[in-house]
Amino acid sequence: MTPSRADCLAIDSRDPLAGLRERFTLPADVIYLDGNSLGALPRATAGLIAKAISGDWGEGLIRSWNDAHWVDLPQRVGQKIARLIGARAADVIACDSTSVNLFKVLAAALFIQQDDAPGRKTIVSERGNFPTDLYVAEGVCDMLNATTGGYRLHLVDDKDGLAAALADQPAVLMLTHIDYRSGSMHDMAAITALAHRHGALVIWDLAHSAGAMPLELDRCGADFAVGCGYKYLNGGPGAPAFVFVAGRHQQRARQPLSGWFGHASPFRFESGYRAANGISRFLSGTPQVLGMLALDAGVDTLLGAEPLGGLAALRAKSLALGDLFITLANAGPARDVMKLITPKDPRQRGSQVSFLADSSRIDGYAVMQALIERKVIGDYRDPDLLRFGMAPAYLRYVDVFDAVAILNDTIASRSWEEERFALRAEVT
Amino acid sequence: MTPSRADCLAIDSRDPLAGLRERFTLPADVIYLDGNSLGALPRATAGLIAKAISGDWGEGLIRSWNDAHWVDLPQRVGQKIARLIGARAADVIACDSTSVNLFKVLAAALFIQQDDAPGRKTIVSERGNFPTDLYVAEGVCDMLNATTGGYRLHLVDDKDGLAAALADQPAVLMLTHIDYRSGSMHDMAAITALAHRHGALVIWDLAHSAGAMPLELDRCGADFAVGCGYKYLNGGPGAPAFVFVAGRHQQRARQPLSGWFGHASPFRFESGYRAANGISRFLSGTPQVLGMLALDAGVDTLLGAEPLGGLAALRAKSLALGDLFITLANAGPARDVMKLITPKDPRQRGSQVSFLADSSRIDGYAVMQALIERKVIGDYRDPDLLRFGMAPAYLRYVDVFDAVAILNDTIASRSWEEERFALRAEVT
């Protein structure tokens, strides 16, 4: 029996995480199922940023680098993120973008392999990995190959391909923990162990997992990781990203974006580079203070869930919201025109549900536009993919009920056809 | 005859740029002579950021990438910066940090030379260049040398050294236009021409010049440039930086931080990298929206000076403020204990005046601390350097008068000795 709207309201009223939603500002008329692209606005952020601008910058001026502790924001925010990803406080730092940070850790991993196993020059990844990860890996190879060559990115299509590629003894395995399209999740512990057995270092991109579920980088033996500040960490558009480097690698790790904030003594203005001890050597230029403060507010908001059960409770809710979406979609006309591609097994599922539109029956892009027109915001990815994020920090069960009701109605009424007509008119 | 305080007030009352100061929020009790480290807060910034947070992020959510035009902020802000540095609108883009951007242009320049003149593998720079520039150049060489070697950073100490290094046919000359310590300025046109005669590509770091004076990158034939958003552009702490690439190089330029925003079609999610046309290929990851909006406000504030005479008027005022500082310091006890190291010749001077403290007579660090205690904010750089920035957008002649009066009084009264005592007490 599918849950009724009243059932959903009842579940919400018992939800131990319900209070967390109050720490966000959400538009009253919107059901937001795209927190996996851009997280919602924490209630604390606007005030903190206003104070930082008018007080710390406007009044404090240059003095605020010390007086307002801007100077160690990357370390302080990193230490908080460490609590969310199963890492030691000393092993995480917030800075730059995911793409730039991936460049750093790819180079660092390849430099380590160059010392330990000079023949290893291949980066293995999945063809379906988020494109920026693949593009950056190409850039790293391009630069390392400047004089002789041999570095390459090897893309695999599936698990068999992955196993075969690892058996060829690559230098690095670079994977995104949760697939941005399907929402399927890798077994971090098992894959890391397998890669290590083959002598590869492992880099995890946590873009779609950090903040949505408990992670255990240390327990899994991960070597490096990067992650995104603007999805489930709610750090705002283009928020700084983060880097994790396992303690065992830090003192030998070299990264080529060796800017002054990664120097052992940045304010001694020495002409030669000496890497800082520990994770700070993964910094590059001057930290982006405003973005870092917004990220800090986002992370604090999430850490506010710790007394309510923390990431384990968030994960349980995210899975329950996803199950509810799937159940309700299967009980209506959506069932006949959209195929679930997200694994149902919680051990293989991230924090979103994705459906492939049957393009012989519906126009997936037009359906998503029609939903957005009706204030249900998910997103569409070519070709034919409808993606709905289940951000457990601020989404209610009744939101999912209402969203799927509107989805089913949009399909039943074929109201999306008007949207398609409007869209086509725009193009021509 | 040295100007009196009344003279300075009279000059301020006639200053065509006086109104520009009203577009900034400055603390009432401070004389701020450190705009070369962190520019002051434009009056418009707080409101714009508040609206972006509460409205565009909080209400618009993911839709604001298009609806609030976040997606092309790097190009739009870059086009405005282009007007300040003598470049075509299509040749400048705002993104990342100065350090990260320098990595991109160094790699791009060396890749071009690899095609055109494969033997050229040396980057020439000055030992006194701002350290992050040197550190990043080391990182670039380190990575390019991964397999064979030959890339190196060659540092020179003076003009003779520079001429000799260029005669050795290096790949790249990388210079900061205005020295961060002495405030001395290179002749961009002459040095660029000299480097070109020797077949080197030229990268200019405009950290201490962009926004403080007219620049003519195109007329000088510069190949690449980077610059800082948080000094004279008033973009806020850790603001995004910018990149200039001469149009003639853009279509062949490759940069290895090849993130998705530099892709020809970022939202088609292709697995292989195809560089965007033009300057956009110098983007990497997702733009830092909050920082970019604050930078936009800072640049707009400066462009507001265009009807008042623009950069030429700002430059004239900056030089006049510097002359006034030097004259007044020379008329008091500062004369006997501090030696001007900034060139007096305006053709060789940036927008700051720097003095070397005579360490046998005063403790330069304690003097600067005593000045800051009395709300005159300059800065100190090891060893013995007192640095005073003349940000012409918001500094008044009377501010300089009062600052030097306090400086002379601090030295005459030896009040800095208490500061030194306090500092020593802190250390022990």
Task: Spell out the key features of this protein.
homodimer; 428 residues; alpha/beta; Aspartate Aminotransferase, domain 1; Aspartate Aminotransferase, domain 2; 2 domains; seven-stranded mixed beta sheet; four-stranded antiparallel beta sheet; 17 helices; 43% helix; globular; disordered C terminus
Structure description:
2 copies of one chain form a homodimer. In chain A, α6 (98-116) crosses α7, α13 packs parallel to α16 and α15 (364-373) crosses α17. The N and C termini of chain A lie far apart (46 Å). A 7-stranded mixed β-sheet of chain A has the order 4-10-9-8-7-5-6, sandwiched between helices. Chain A has helices at residues 5-14, 18-21, 45-60, 64-67, 73-85, 98-116, 131-144, 159-167, 188-197, 217-220, 247-250, 289-303, 310-330, 334-337, 364-373, 397-413, 416-427; strands spanning 24-25, 31-32, 41-42, 92-95, 122-126, 152-156, 172-176, 201-205, 224-227, 241-245, 338-340, 352-357, 376-377, 379-381, 385-389. The model of chain A is unreliable at 424-428 (pLDDT under 50). Chain A is α/β, with parallel strands linked by helices. In chain A, a hairpin with a 3-residue loop joins β14 and β15. Chains A and B meet through α3, α6, α7 and α12 of A and α3, α6, α7 and α12 of B.
Structural class, from secondary structure content of chain A? alpha/beta
Known CATH architecture of the largest domain in chain A = 3-Layer(aba) Sandwich
Q: In terms of quaternary structure, what is this?
A: homodimer
The main sheet of chain A orders its strands as: 4-10-9-8-7-5-6
CATH class designation of the largest domain in chain A = Alpha Beta
Residue fraction in strands of chain A: 5-15%
Radius of gyration of chain A, Cα only, in angstroms? 23 Å
Helix content of chain A: 40-55%
- Output mean pLDDT of chain A: 95
For the biggest sheet of chain A, the summary is: 7 strands, mixed
Q: How would you sum up the global shape of chain A?
A: globular
Distance between the termini of chain A: 46 Å
Q: Ranges of chain A with pLDDT <50 over ≥5 residues?
A: 424-428
The domain count of chain A comes to 2
The number of strands of chain A is 15
Chain pair with largest interface: A-B, 97 and 97 residues
